[in-house]
Protein 1
Amino acid sequence: MCGIIGYIGPRNVVGVLMEGLHRLEYRGYDSAGVAVVDDGKVCGEKRVGKLSNLEEALKAHPLRGSVGIGHTRWATHGRPSDSNAHPHLDCSKRLAVIHNGIIENYVRLRAALAARGHAFASDTDTEVVAHLIEERYQGDLAAAVRSVLGEVHGAYALGVLSADSPDEVLFARNGASPLVVGLGQGETFVASDTPAIMEYTRKQLVIHEGEVVVVTRHGAEISTFAGEPVEREVTRISWDVRAAEKGGFKHFMLKEIYEQPKVVRDTLAGRIDDDGRTDLADAGLTDAQLREVKKVSMFACGTAYHAAMYGMYLIRQLAKLPVELELASEFRYSHPVVDASTLAVAISQSGETADTLEAARVARAGGATLLGVCNRVGSALARHADATLYTHAGPEIGVAATKTFTAQCAAMALFALHLARVRGAADPEELRQIAAALRESPALVDQALNADEEILPVARRYAKAKTVLFLGRHVNYPIALEGALKLKEISYIHAEAYAAGEMKHGPIALLDEAVPVVGIATRSPIEEKVLSNLSEAKARESRIIAVANQGDDAVLEIADVIFQVPQTHHLIAPIVNVVPLQLFAYHVADRKGCDVDQPRNLAKTVTVE
Ligand code: G6P
């Protein structure tokens, strides 16, 4: 949802901006642009399309300066084009503005500005900000920006550069548009996300909603919109720089698929002992609080929603609590019934997804205790939640989520086991067996990756399919949903997932020899039911691809192709079963020549509702 970057210091400014934009490109790639102050003037370049187009333009017209801002766009207002690319300038061309988010009242502001004689060069909501600052500027950039912030409504992270204030660059944040400042020696960095700055510094300041930050080469001064100074603790970036590199893999997505044994291990580390006893003290919810819970209300978006669904099945079955699950974008409109006895669980890799944050706000306003499950330390979700269970997946650069999903599933399994144990809701021996399987899951995910070579030719064979149906039941239903989502996101093949038992109530009408069916049929108490559903599909001439355990003859009889995964406890199996589906989607997309890491129209973090 747009990436923004800023730099002031002695390095090659455009080099730092472009390097940062590369790391932020996952946030949007409809266009990109940079602006610098050079010799008392604002100079810039911007181009529609991928960052490489901007790179080419900068080769032809190199820029230099000591302070600059850059932007990579995911279009909301105004189609992708050179003129709609950021930065946007005012009429005097002495101010440049970049923006992530939406200015909701821009139509009215634009009309008023036009009536006062301002000429607009784009169709964006952002440009009004440049013209408003132009009107208010009387020698104090921060004062001008502050006065404009009182007038623009919406969610935003803004960056403002002025030829008249070349020793500073200003940023402001309102709502779910993340912003971090990286502190160096005689240089300062600003970005939408940590990977853009972590190559240069380990010291970071997280900017909160409702704050302005004045950035100079000597550091950053944070204040509220009203101008009250804010003290912010410097946090240390613990992520490894190599985590944001491809490390020899063709794509980030493939690398991240292969990182899954490690991220599941890291997410479990210190939270489950050899006897299967869970300890989630780091999340910040006491056992007494968990015993008081009468209902769990879960919400999330996209891939995280599938992890939430897996969690729902586990919590119901093991902790024997009523669990409601809702898409975060629907939650606030569905008149959710929550009160002080409700534990709301919001799952979000980024912790910045606007729909999820809004649902979390509604749940808390209703009296619920909010548990955030997220991957980003210090994210908005983590800050607003009463407790946070972190996944330890490290930065995920591929837009299609993979390793953060398995980490979320591991976190869900941990949480369900913990809730069940604390509440005395399940047979301790059963919990011990599930916990043992969970502890073993990193090794099993590793084994599942061994099927990669067999998946490749199958993916090639099915790369021309127009529609693929994914089927799973119970805890493997969310895995079918995730398998279908991965395929459609990155290969643009239409894929649908159904609870296997539901197929006969409609989607069976789609089936013929041209529609392959991917079924998750690992050993479980309902394996036979799933096999019956796959047989129904086979009888309609569909080719059957089954995710199955070794030596399962019943599956062999039905399936045309088997993606073999190691067997484990059926409640933990989803963490392993998703791996071949991720690899299948990856190889299909790669075969089709799709842009795997940056699929069209998508953004990794969606900070608008
Ligand atoms: C976007 C991404 C998805 C992701 C979803 C939720 O739509 O493209 O991959 O699952 O947001 O993101 P979150 O950061 O809240 O987990």
Protein 2
Amino acid sequence: MTGTTATTINTRLPLRQVWPDAFVERYRAAGYWRGETLPGFLRERAERFTHDVAVVAGETRYTYGQLWQEAERIGGGLLTLGLRPGDRVVVQLGNVAEFVTVVCGLFRAGLIPVYALPAHRITEIVHFVRRAEASAYVTAARYEGFDYRSLARELRAEVPTVQQVVIAGEAEEFTALAELAGDTSALPGDSDPQAVAFLQISGGSTGLSKLIPRTHDDYIYSFRASNEICAIDRDSVYLVALPAAHNFPMSSPGWLGALYAGARVVLSPGPGPDIAFPLLAREKVTCVGLVPPLALLWADAAAESRHDLSSLRVVQVGGAKLVPEAARRVAKGLDCRLQQVFGMAEGLVNYTRLSDPDDVVLNTQGRPISPDDEVLVVDDHGEPVPEGAAGHLLVRGPYTIRAYHNDDTANARSFTEDGYYRTGDMVQRLPGGYLVVQGRATDHINRAGEKISAEEIEDHLLAHPAVFDAAVVSIPDDYLGERSCAFVIARGERPRAVALKAWVREQGLAAFKVPDQIEFVDAFGTTAVGKISRRELRAQLREHFLDRQNQDEERI
Ligand code: AMP
Ligand code: DBH
């Protein structure tokens, strides 16, 4: 016997996000990375702005002082349950006060949040838990009619390594968030600013979502600089209308930017004007981030609204392309400054500036945050294209990751040897560094800002006994920007489209991934060479479909 106690050895993969030394020095010297940490700044704000309101959710209000107290209670409580700093915790909460207190509590305890969206279901949660090697799951009893305790039960059955389930609300057999209590003296000292602070989720262009490790230094830089660009200061009131776990309302500048500035964060339980407008008027909101279809809805609703929206200074629109005509309607309808935001959870964020001329604001998706965002626009062979020509967008910089967590295949595909992230977006770069998004090189569907991997849905369709083959493509949609359409070759008798949609949902997936449309075909027109790539196939199917649709429209 060698005497090794295998059971006590921690075999979890370490969380790493490493820039080469020369870059670290450069980013520090330039003042981007200042050695601040997320719990560090929250503590400092709690001391400085103790009695100012930090978070508003429904009738609940937390001052900066109370937010920090809650963070200490929750963080201490989680450690008392047996979690250890560095453990990963999947958080699935909607736009409720607990989302902010839990995330701040995790930061305080050196625990690593993994951000799931409320729309995610068992398949996605199991994937996040396994990939992150998470030891705990924090969720709500119910949100938007769904009971997350049943999901927690399924999760525990499927992944027994999830030691703890903590529930906001009626906890049943689980631990109640409200009852967490612990020895705050067990809380760790401040973290290493270059350590990974949390795992963000990528929309995933191929297969399942990837986990994005972001460090304190890099993330804080991105929202501190965003505050400057978006004029967020202590007097600002930032409305979280999109899911708070999404990178856009979290960091561009988002609720974290707002907390950094000592501003007020208002969580809207829903994104529509019916819920958001009364809140906006009550709290005198100054800034909000929206996806294009919502922005159009808001612009229309504003004309007839009895609510006073005059506090609104900046409406940010991002997550999917805002075409110029839509941009015009939004700017006019909401009577405030429009700001286009083109960002990604992997890092790079572009903004039109508040002082930019209308032409730039309406027609471009902005320019990068940082002078040290190195943007390349290249052709299919990796050669730079001339200014103004369309090409693949590659980027590296002080807040763009160099690797995903625990995914060698994705890393080999998504990063160049010299550390550039291949965004998968096709863009044009204009003078001044402004980018115009042209489309994508990868096959995901951008459904109103929710990214869906074609491959992931095809896999689930193929598991259906009546499906011989399936290809999922994006189809332009007036409202969503893009919708998903699955082309299906049946095996024998065709199943009903609704039955196939129900099948996808029953695989335990977020509802937004269920194909919007299903088209049965007898064969995929794999012409000429016979064997074509999935990508070419999807492109062909899409083109045929759009041609046919156009012909039908001409006939009408
Ligand atoms: P994710 O990697 O899941 O965070 O999604 C980021 C992707 O969303 C980008 O790579 C773009 O494809 C898309 N995206 C975000 N903002 C915009 C925008 N303003 N215009 C067009 N596409 C956008
Ligand atoms: O779509 C996105 O992921 C996104 C959009 C705008 C984002 O991550 C961001 C700003 O930070």
